[in-house]
TrEMBL record, chains A, B:
GO MF annotations, alphabetized: DNA-binding transcription factor activity; transcription cis-regulatory region binding
HTH lacI-type domain span: 4-58
Organism: Fervidobacterium pennivorans (strain DSM 9078 / Ven5)
InterPro entries per record: HTH_LacI, LacI/GalR-like_sensor, Lambda_DNA-bd_dom_sf, Peripla_BP_I
A Pfam family of this chain: LacI
Keywords, alphabetical: DNA-binding, Transcription, Transcription regulation
Name of this chain's protein: Transcriptional regulator
The organism's place on the tree of life at top rank: Bacteria
């Protein structure tokens, strides 16, 4: 689209470009007469309100960046929707990018978003450190970590109590007579997978329960491949999965082996994405308040921007056990 | 983040702000000596390359807007991912917004995106006209319509052959002995639902088949509510659904009524979102090449921007029949 330029404004108002610039940026005083001419031309040409002029004026672009692993995972799509709704209500727009949990892609996205002069960043990254991001935070970039935090930074975050989530699942399984557990976890370099691993091993250290733990990836394919290739899977009473997508893959692979869920083995997920309720069997899982996570993180970020805080607070949301049909019940 | 401002550059280089502006925008000649001072200050302060300065210089923001119904529908999340990957490869960033198929929200989003000086727009709208958008197109806004087109505009689009999709489904059902059809379609104000309706009625006009058609909404809830409340549903051999989400809702409501799919009635979807393969029963549906749609639309849009075309071409992609377990087979 042919945009109205500062030149057009200068021409119509009969003043120099630098005078227009002074009026728009407030960088130096301009006489009332000339100011009025410029404003009239600006209005006539529809040059205002322009986000670019506003950016020059107050350094705010009203744009928030969001780096996340993959928008096609419903867990992230729902977080994004929560962020989007909150931010739009407050006059902000969201730019996002999928990193596929690739560190280089994350850093590339960071450069791209910074070149857009975002006012702040929502970040769901991989790994447990990111020197480049830390440097930007030290230089003043406002960041809220979502779902995953990284080491060495005292920043705001919104996460779910992963330890509690794992314990809710194990309580439910143990109460229902399960005594041996196979944990098919997600990507080993992610904060959430690591927290869940630690919580699981802590609970297992009593030595009362047979158990094994594996890191795979947070995808249907990872769950399917793991369960297809794992021999003697029926030595376990239950399979805990790192997220719902992994659980779907595990259940489908078991079915192909002729193993019935939950009659022969129980399977649990993590997240409660909308499809889990309608899976056959409907999935027993731990609900993360995805939409709320996106909202809360955006609220924190706008607070940090408005009040010029380098950090606001860390919010740990409660997960909720959702018992459905993929786990065997010994009592009602 | 405290951003380096044009004032800081002026101060460090010892020239006026208007001189800095002239150097950055190229709006008027500046002596070589002063230009070098400004460039040195710009580099020292890390004020370059700035997308805002670039915007002033060449009117391009390298930002594409995308207005779509709802990012939490996997159909759109996969289209977005296709667009995102293509655009990023070409140096562009995506800003998007969910409209919930609300016309006012669509127009509000349009204002927001235009205020960001987007270079072009991908648009999946509701209704069959939009005077405001048409005006913007006449004024030079580059738009590619995705999945849905509107009347009165000779613009670029990427859609799927909806007529062919419906006929593929009906061929499959009729070949397998189905003779009566209930069509639970999506939102009546959308292009795709209307096209599918027309295709269905055309095929039915021979009078050979008992049939009924209803517009509902493109959601699980709409399908579930419809099938829950529809009496004598077994008078039909098959239920065609406007998309996969509707089909999931219909199947679940039928199950609650004790009706077995496909033994007692066949159910089909439209889209082939990734969960449809793993639904129980796995869904017979029509695959839309979602990721490719996002890619193609982005390719057209960048072509229009680069070549300053008001329209490029219309692309109609082929849908593909995917036969799974939700339809009864009378022959192999």
């Amino acid at each position: 689209m042919k945009k109205v330029s500062i030149k057009d404004v200068a021409k119509l108002s009969g003043v120099s470009i630098s005078t227009v610039s002074r009026v728009l940026t407030g960088s130096a005083p301009v006489s009332k007469e000339l100011t009025e001419k410029v404003i009239k031309a600006v209005q006539e040409l529809g040059y205002s309100p322009s986000s670019i002029a506003r950016s020059l004026r107050n350094g705010a672009t009203k744009t928030i960046g969001f780096i996340l692993p993959d928008i096609t995972n419903p867990f992230f799509a729902h977080i994004v929707r929560g962020a989007e709704d909150y931010l739009r209500k407050h006059g902000y727009t969201l730019i996002f990018g999928s990193s596929d949990q690739d560190k280089n892609e994350e850093n590339h996205l960071l450069d791209v978003l910074l070149s857009k002069h975002i006012d702040g960043l929502l970040f769901t990254g991989s790994g447990d450190s990111n020197p480049k991001l830390l440097r930007k935070i030290e230089q003043g970039l406002k960041v809220v970590f979502l779902d995953r935090i990284i080491r060495g930074v005292n920043s705001s975050y919104v996460i779910v109590d992963n330890k509690k989530g794992i314990n809710l699942l194990l309580d439910h399984l143990i109460e229902n007579g399960h005594e041996s557990f196979l944990f098919v976890n997600g990507d080993k370099n992610t904060f959430s997978a690591k927290q869940r691993h630690v919580a699981f091993m802590e609970r297992m250290k009593s030595g009362k329960y047979k158990h094994e733990h594996y890191f795979t990836g947070f995808s249907y394919r990872a769950g399917y491949n793991f369960a297809s290739q794992f021999d003697d899977i029926l030595e376990f009473d239950a399979i805990l999965c790192g997220n719902d997508l992994i659980a779907f893959g595990v259940i489908d692979a078991l079915e192909e082996k002729g193993i019935h869920v939950p009659e022969q083995i129980s399977v649990t997920g993590f997240d409660d994405i909308p499809f889990s309720k309608h899976y056959k069997p409907a999935l027993t899982t731990v609900r993360q308040p995805m939409y709320e996570m996106g909202q809360k993180a955006s609220e924190l970020l706008l607070l940090m921007i408005k009040e010029q805080l380098s950090t606001a607070e860390g919010i740990i949301l409660d997960p909720e056990l959702v018992v459905r049909e993929s786990t065997r019940r010994t009592k009602i």
